[in-house]
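Why run this: before we spend reagent on co-expression, it is cheaper to look at a predicted model of the complex and decide which construct boundaries make sense. The entries below are exactly what would go into the expression plan.
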Amino acid sequence: MKQLFIAFALLFSTATFAQSDKYMSAMKANIQQMKDAKTSEENIAVIQKFERIAEAEKTQWLPYYYAAMLKATMAIISQEDNKDALADEATTTLDKADALSKNNSEILCIRSLIATAKMLVNPQARYMEFGMLINKYINEAKKADANNPRPYYLEASNIFNTPKQFGGGCEKSKPIAEKALQLYNSFKPENEIAPNWGKENIEQILKACN
Amino acid sequence: MFSNDDLMKKLVGIITSVFLFSNVFAQTKITGTVNDNKNKPLAGVSISILNTYDGATSDVNGKFFMTTNEQGAFIIEAKMLGYKSATQNISLNKNEIKIDFILKEEVSELKAVTVTAGSFEAGDKKRVATVLTALDVYTTGGANGDITSAIKTLPGTQQVGEQEGLFVRGGAGYETKQMIDGMVVNNPFYSGSPDIATRGRFAPGLFKGNIFSTGGYSALYGQALSSVLLLESIDLPNRSEASASISSVFVGVGFQDLAKNKKYSYGINYGYTNLVPYFSLVKQKPDYFLMPEFHNADANFRIKTKRGGMIKYYTNFSANKMGLRNVDIDSSLLKDAFTLKNNFWYNNVSYRENLGKGWKSLLGFSYSTNNDIIQTDIQNQNNQSVTTGIHYIDDKKIALNSQQNLTVLRGVLEKRISGISTIRFGSEYWYSFNKYLYNNNFTSTIKDHYTAIFAETDLYITNQLAFKAGGRFEYSSMMKAGNIAPRLALAYKTGNNAQMSIAFGEFYQKPEVLQIMNYKNGVHQTGYTKATHYLINYIKNTSLQTFRVEAFYKKYNNLIKIFPDTNNTGNGYAQGFELFWRDKKTFKNIDYWISYSYLDTKRDFLNYPTTLQPTFATPHTLSVVTKTFVTKWKTGFNFTYNFATGRPYYNIAFNNNTNKYEIFDEGKTISLHNLGFSLNYLPNLGKQNAKTFIVLVASITNVLNSNLIYNYRYSYNGLNKVAVTPPAKQFFFIGCFLSWGVDKTQDAINNNL
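The model came back. Tokens follow.
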């Protein structure tokens, strides 16, 4: 009987290990695909893969997080008339991540990205409202995790991309980028699938500003 | 026991290997296609086996392919935004499966057509093309931050400069009504002197958006034969702020406070306008013996309710006075001296709430009171009052004290019926009280209780086809009569970002109080005036470009005639077409728009002896507006060019021999060319640590110094003809606007760290 119990326990644990392995390997594969995706078709395919994992797992915030991040990125780079629609979709997805992991610094970073996309629809008219939101989420992200380099990366990158006449440029961006790099150097992602992006971009900013 | 142990070991081995085996080798292939309900392939659809990781994305041909290791009964789903998801049960058992899906399009706000016949919506809303925002008004060259002046660059409007108001498609200025949060506004323009148009009383920044309807407007509104300008007030401001301004004609201070929790805000503003310094520098045609002076104060509070609704209160008080002399038209030795004192107080309370289950309510109350004390005197060369004994000169001596009060109560309920289809219905009540004391001895009081009930539905059949149908029943106690005004519009999507609309509507309006009073001693004898609109339009737009063409036919019935009797026997028509093109894409950093209006209109009303082209209408009107912001210089340059062909003018006078009004002389004014320019310089733009935000504005109207002639007036004997022109050909303005932001988000974060 004892053996049978052990057998079932073993079977069960294999299954869960397998499940968790399956999750990790699927996520790893998707993150790689996300990095390789070039066209919007490829992006949509990866978003949908993340969403399938999220819907199947039900308790993991990360797949929703990556899906929302991709949607926000698509909204930012879109040259078409769909920035608002994509940004709203990103918010819907990110809300699901937020429901599973409250006050998460990484999720707040994506909120800031979405606000950036919203602002870019009509910067002249929307700067007041969304410019304020971008910074609000960056500040909240810093507060939620003081060791997360990404809010500093976003801040440095926003300032870097703002024309000098509007208070942007290297001079103002550099100290924040340096702080971000410092945090990146001491940052250790929780595991292979945890958010771990932005370091290369910070290095590029610092290179451009030297 | 031993054998049992062995058995157990074997069992464990078998179970584990079966598990591994099933994981690796039991693949099932699934292929298929996804089409929409018109059998067109859908790309980018997510096909998923629910509760697994497995799935695929459909390609441009709607085809998909996937493999899965799962076995057993599952649900497979096809999902895409804007479409109803479809599911099918499948059994996975290594046999290849072929599944086809048909997804039905959902009617969604994002994709559906909007009923746009007749209206220009402006605001930063998602669904509608942004045509004119508050920022656009502020940066329209020559508009000097006046909503009406900026609206006059849109098609359908006339370049009438001698009277305030919007003259739309052959209609007079009073045939356009302004509504704030749905409630009609009395006296929306500052009181002024004859033949000089005044500014609107409300600053563009008070409103988050406006809808300018040039015809065929919704059953929710009434009592405007031509057009309505719907102004929607802002909710909570973005931040707390103190502001101050100083300019060539006014000074102002203001403060607004947004609560830390962003649930409520309040604000007050005060402005003082005095034209002494300006008029001493820039010569004016009239002789101002009492320099125009305006006090203007407003206050507001806004509260966000628990369910996301808003309670808003706005009040505006203003007082102004002025006095000016012009040469009398009948005798060059005499002068007409005009003095005006005006007090105006406006209040608007509105309460918008989400009631749940798709219900929304909007309740409103507004009250305004306006008092004008006007005196016209005949003076000699020493500016002393004289009586000539000539009746047509002495008759011009007028003392008028007029009081106009308006109370509006309004309630609208809205319910989502299915998808995005909506019904709205409601009621409104206006109580207007007008009292006139004429030459200190004759009093006339005109009161009216006006009640309306209205209902309207937005019916979306598909994303391609929508109807707006409504009706309005109105009853006025003064008219002792009611009317029913049907409205109908249809919109059809003809292609990507393109749509067509048609609209029909009947519109009624009470005669102007002055028309009744002047000619019939306050005894009411007339009924509603009526206009019937038919319009068709085509719009193609993206967020950066808008093309719009609209054609209309308008029939006027029951217009007021004042001779031989005051009655409703007047009539007329207006027809024409309009083009609009706005483009923020073609030229880098340049936003421009072009409006062209063609108008053919004639009417027989008031003392017109026959059907005539009215003095406020011209066939061709063109506006070109350009705006550019040079980041390097932190400066915006805005040009507006308005062109209109000449307008007719008539000397209509009573012929004592025939006992009729006749045209003794007529002509056409010269064409109107007006180039306006404004410049705004933002020295602290982008300086994130700057405590003060500064905007410097310089503007000039009629840069080319062209002759602006709006009309002609005739002397009593018809021998002297005088051009109606602005008091000065050009208007110059320089101003400095300062604001100090008090960003409490930052405080809140710092306090919590």
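The CA atoms of residues 29 and 60 of chain A lie 16 Å apart. The two ends of chain A are 71 Å apart (CA to CA). Bring this page to Monday's planning discussion.
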